[in-house]
Amino acid sequence: MSGVTPEPWPRRRFLASGAALLAVGAGSRPSSARSRPLRLVTNWYAQAEHGGFYQALATGIYADYGLQVEIRMGGTAVNVLQLLAGGAADFVLGGSPDALAALQAGIPVLTVAAFFQKDPQCLLAHPGVGIERLEDLRGKPIWVSPGANLTYWPFLRAKFGFTDEQKRPYNLSLTPFLLDKSSAQQGYVTSEPFRVRQEGGFDPVVFLLADYGYSPYATTLETTRPFAEQHPEQVRKFVAASIQGWQSYLEDPRPGNRLIRQDNPNMSEALLAYAHQALKDYGLLTSGDAATLGIGAMTHQRWQTYFQEMVALGTVEANLDVGQAYTLDFLPGPTA
């Protein structure tokens, strides 16, 4: 993500929050959402990857739907599941891996929309050193986070023959990668290529893993099943307004960007512009299911396919009912 790439949720953190979230399922969640603003907690510091939500707030789209909304930034010290469990958040941003990990831990997290049809996760390599295909990275040192072990690394290992011996610990700094031309590192296509250009003075070779078969949804909108059951109309309106916000942000991001920079003064106009263009260039919001069903779309087939792939890789249990991790009920238009 913009600035640094966040850690996906390790299973131990799901389990640590599990008791609280299971209590939500027993009816402990307050039902006063109509008397206060809806609270969305993002999965990182404010950035273009959250632009549609900020746009909906900045331009009055949420208000047009009769919603009061507060957006709160995530960050390195923010455990969004704990906030969801404790009633401090009504919605959080996540991804398919998070949803399956929560399901496996017995936590009633429910995905109601998927805004990124492609996960922005990528690997970056140096130009001019003979690395032109993803396969060329076999045997090369790759700087990755621990969270990769639960998300994209098993995919790379199974499909492209990568080995655990290649992994190097990524600590959010570009320096090790910049100093070793034989190495690669993880990143988001919306951020790290820009940072490499700024800090290293060159444009890296970018491999967007989604274009090589890595198939999770990203920037998904998650709530709890009890909240969705108690407040279905608010969930439906929030999904619809957020979709409209993303449509508006892709056309003219300036209103949303102003709010993003208010929340995150460290975010530069240059990086916002780069990330906004990358969202469009890579089709993160408009490809896949969204090409025919619209922004925010999900399908049963896509969820089932991803689940089966993760079962084959050994990252989730085969006896899970993946249909409990998501619902299409709050999406506008036809679903499949």
CATH class of the largest domain: Alpha Beta
Overall shape:
globular
Name the average pLDDT: 90
Oligomeric status? single chain
Domain count, please report it.
2
- Biggest β-sheet: count, sense, barrel? 5 strands, mixed
| Terminal CA distance | 30 Å
Q: Number of helix segments?
A: 14
Helix-strand pattern: HEHHEHEHEEEHEHEHEEHHHHHH
Low-pLDDT regions: 2-31
- The CATH homologous superfamily of the largest domain corresponds to Periplasmic binding protein-like II
- Tell me the strand order in the biggest sheet: 2-1-3-10-4
Walk me through what this model shows.
Helix 2 packs across helix 10 and helix 2 (51-58) crosses helix 11 (254-263). The chain has helices spanning 11-28, 51-58, 61-64, 80-85, 96-104, 153-160, 175-179, 192-200, 225-230, 232-251, 254-263, 269-281, 290-293, 300-313; strands at residues 38-41, 69-72, 91-95, 109-116, 121-125, 142-144, 167-169, 184-188, 205-208, 218-224. Residues 2-31 have low confidence and may be disordered. With 336 residues, the chain is α/β, with parallel strands linked by helices. The chain has 2 domains: 11-118 and 216-324, D-Maltodextrin-Binding Protein, domain 2, CATH 3.40.190; 121-212, D-Maltodextrin-Binding Protein, domain 2. It has a 5-stranded mixed beta sheet with strand order 2-1-3-10-4, sandwiched between helices. The chain has a 5-stranded mixed beta sheet with strand order 7-6-8-5-9, with no helix packed on it.
